[in-house]
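Dear Dr. L.,

I hope this message finds you well. Following up on our conversation about the binding site, I have prepared a predicted three-dimensional model of the protein together with DGJ. For your records, I am including the exact sequence and ligand specification that went into the calculation, followed by the structure tokens. Please feel free to forward this to your student if that is useful.
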Amino acid sequence: MMILENEKRIFTLQTRNTTYQIKADENGVLLHTYYGPRLRGGDLSRLIRYADRGFSPNPNEVGNNRTYSLDTLPQEYSGSGAGDFRLPSLELELADGSHVADLRYVSYRQQRGKYDLEGLPAFFGGEAAADTLVITLEDAAAQVRVELFYGVFEELDLITRAARIVNQGDQPVRLYRAASLCLDFSGLPLEFITFDGGHVKERKLNRAPLRPGIQSVGSIRGISSHQHNPFVMLCEPGADEDHGTCYGAALLYSGNFEAAAERSQFEDVRLTMGIHPFHFAWTLEPGQAFTTPEAALICSPSGFGQMSRQFHRAIRTHLLRDVWRDRRKPVQVNSWEAFYFDYDQERLLRFAKESAQLGVEMFVLDDGWFGRRNSDSSSLGDWWANEEKLPDGLSGLSREINALGMEFGLWIEPEMVSEDSQLYQTHPDWVLNPAGRPYTRGRSQLVLDYTREEVREYIFQTLQKLLETARISYLKWDMNRALTQVWSAALPAGRQGEVYHRYVLGVYDLLERIRQANPHTLIEGCSGGGGRFDMGMLYYTPQIWCSDNTDAIDRLSIQYGTSFAYPPATMGAHVSAVPNEQTGRSVPLETRGAVALSGTFGYEMDLGALSDQEKAVVVQQIQDYRESYTLIQTGDYYRLSAPSPDGAPTAWLHVSQDRRTALLCLVSGQVHAGPPFRQVKLKGLDPALSYRLTGDDMPWPGDVLMQAGYPLPMLGEYECLRLWLKAE
Ligand code: DGJ
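The resulting structure of the complex is given below.
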């Protein structure tokens, strides 16, 4: 709901649990007056204080009023070079070489339903779900306008933001920074939470109080990255899963990003998020506009868990678009960790047949099926079957797979090219690299120039041919290196600062075309696991391979960190063989299953090599998947305990929307002699109901389970529990 007090120029965005308020003051400066737990409204600018602060200059409109400074006021979209020395939202260069952006309020408009952003991922919503507010600002001297877009999803507590910068003058303007989000907080001590790591160790939660100055995370790798996720949080000190006010901010973007939090000299806090300014320079010719990626905000007055559940709901219902969103996805078996590059048709068919006998529903042929690809250093770009390995081609193989009653899925890496490929030999200038400069290779491969339409067109036609010759129900869209030598042969020198962003737009464009041409094909995103796990990709690919680390114990913390923003149903997760490829650790098959079952679920191992006893476990897991799928896909997710190195169990709970069904999942940690009696307090149940637990004859009252906890049996190292709770 939006309350617009026109004559006072106050814009109050009310959601179920939160209030967000903006006000254009008497000087036209757009102030951010409040964001937090829901208030009744009114003019909250009375919260703002004015004081004469040394070295904080005063804009022309206020003459010698030294108590009014852009440097101290909470801004809705900060300018630069005009007296606010904190994090800028907008930095530009005008034709005269000046770098001043000084914005004032012009007008607003509103509409029912959510705005959309052409060529960019965005939350969507019709009139019943969302409202749009657009506030227009202007720097009159520069003849630059900025439109601030707000999408308000009342029930979800979701507020989306984006900005559109328009050059209204008759000279070109260069943009060096255009934030998607600027959020100022006055006088509150806040802590900054980020999700960091690296390849095979993605999205570990890091939390620290904000120190004076700027703290930031970001990526200049051309992908959102394994190292830092474009989702960050701010919270009150002491806030935890169930208490305290916290704010989650996500950027729907899959390339270079920056999320920066600044604690100012007066202990105010500003958060900005947007495209990373590294090597970003975008020229706006007269009349042209630039649209930033979308940012999404959720504030929870009652801890992290509530914020996550609102993000999960928002993603499930207003970001994922695929037909697969509401269908049960088939149980997969993937060839990668089973065989890597070492297979032929006969081996694959044996593998598929044995998997089908256990109930697996989809066979995914991973890397190694095309060109002369027998290692990871060859053939990318030559997307036709290797006839030595697959004499009947993909169509023959997929027919055989279908005859086993399974669907067929395929791995591709369409943004890349190997130098020994026919594609590279024909079009060496189709890679990103400044002419004459030696290559920097990553995984022995080069990156195709997706800024170019003819490159995308070629890949589109090639992929379409594949998708038409074989019955491919699933694509795993991989991307296995960071961008370097970022330069396009198709753009002039003055426009090379656009390549990083144009690359991302190119990826989105191609994904959208493939989606639309093949609406029934499930596409899973992947970038060496979780190198591009972001809400931008989720708009095109409803699930993303969470990490190349398939060790169930490491996965506990990877999936835990991922769950702060992203729902379990989007996390690509498979059971793999032991000892694990990445860690050498052996974990019981039941536990590997329990962890993968809280993701998309499948296998990444040679199921034919299992003992009969293990095969029986697999059959049971597939049955469990069928039973728990709807709950995991549509239910609420509660983190009950964080993965801990001291041996305490990691527990989580899926609860149905009507709170009558729940699934408790728990994995014990390292075992030490003389362990304590442990119990786990459940959440999200109905305290007035009684629940029957798997294997327990006596029902448990909901209030007992939540307030006193459920007493755990003694578990061995890395053993798991998966207990259903059904209300009587
Ligand atoms: C990286 C992916 O994350 C793996 O699952 C696998 O598909 C390999 N690439 C194949 O090269």
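In brief: The domain at 641-727 is CATH 2.60.40.1180 (Immunoglobulin-like).

With kind regards,
A. P.
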